[in-house]
Amino acid sequence: MISDRKLEHLLLCAHCDVQYKNKKTGFNDVEFIHRALPELNKEKIDLSTELLGKELNSPIIISAMTGGHPSALSLNRELAKAVDKLGIGMGLGSQRAAIENPELINTYDVARKEAPSSLLIGNIGAPQIEYAHQAVEMIDADALAVHLNPLQESIQPEGDIDATGFLDSIGEIVKTVDVPVVAKETGAGISFEDAVLLEKKGVDAIDVAGSGGTSWAAVETYRADDTYMGDLYWDWGIPTAVSTVEVTQSVNIPVLSSGGIRSGLDAAKAIALGAESVGIALPVLKEAYIGYKEIIKVIERFQESLKVAMFLVGASNLEELKSSKLIIRGQTREWLQERGFDTQKYARRS
Q1: Least crowded by CB within 10 Å, which of 106, 217, 228, 266?
Q2: What is the rounded CA–CA span in Å between residue 302 and residue 293?
Q3: Among the listed ranges 102-106, 127-131, 268-272, 286-290, which one has the minimum average pLDDT value?
Q4: Which of 209, 236, 216 is nearest to 18 (CA)?
């Protein structure tokens, strides 16, 4: 059952090592140019931003994690409480389970009850055109994420490995709903070629969800009887920093950067590379089992470390952060240059 699978995913992410083994996000290859004369007051740094039609107090989004199992009710309640108090946004897990079994709707709509005015992003799979309207209506969503997870489906014992027609399906979903549509990977990244195709189909934003954080091949390996494929593809994907550059340099729609972002410094680098906001999931999952106050502590620490990075590069707001100078080194620069991207432009910003 889908509901049981949701519970397994939660427990595995909370209690097992599901991180990429050898592949990193690439943010360690990104270095800011330090400003000894930042000429600003750190206490006056402004983290506010606008995303998908909503004003946010900071660019940090709690990425889609859960829903569709009774145990998810309390987790989404605590996450939404934190989101409401912090004035940030939140994505919900895939809503297919509740559309097929209405008894599970409360595991999703609890988020809107606890965060009545916050940015909430619904979630369905690319081929699920018929679910789009219900998913939005279920949580009074401000936007709808269409998740792309071919790697996970390839390793999942009950995975759907027929991905034909997904692009046209996404185009139909865009036409079906009256809220912004976000194309979202689930941990393996998005290339510039796919980003361009998605933009042409009318999506309003792209969440790169790159590799280097949680590996969904790893998650499914723990569930599989035969671990060969999961072990082989554990580290598959485009690193988050690479995917962020590829997509931001190739499309003219907002880009969300997620996948292995573990600090405000990572977040600052993602935004400086062109992202509008950043998504985090695993860093707050364990706290969600404790309560919303613990979630708030984690996110406030993220926000404080983001402010420190902005102070050290002389950026008083997020737009100025996007203009800050940085160096891209190592494997990340090698990857991007092989793909034809100019990495020097970031170091030579005026």
Answers
A1: 228
A2: 14
A3: 286-290
A4: 216
pTM: predicted TM-score of the whole model, two decimal places: 0.95
* Tokens encoding 256: 């969300």
- Measured distance CA(22)–CA(211) in Å, rounded: 11
87: which 2 tokens?
């004035």
Query: Superfamily assignment of 2-22+48-309 in CATH?
Result: Aldolase class I (3.20.20.70)
Kindly give, in sequence order, each residue whose CB lies less than 8 Å from that of residue 135, ignoring residues fewer than 6 positions away: 95, 99, 122, 123, 124, 141, 144
Distance CA 1, CA 135 (A): 19
Q: Are 258 and 281 in contact (CB under 8 A)?
A: yes
Kindly state the tokens that stand for 38.
């930042």
Burial of 242: CB neighbours in 10 Å, binned 0-12, 13-18, 19+ = buried
Q: CB count, 10 Å around CB of 325?
A: 17
pLDDT (tens digit per residue) in 110-137: 999 999 999 999 999 999 999 999 999 9
| Cα 77 to Cα 70: distance, rounded to the nearest angstrom | 12
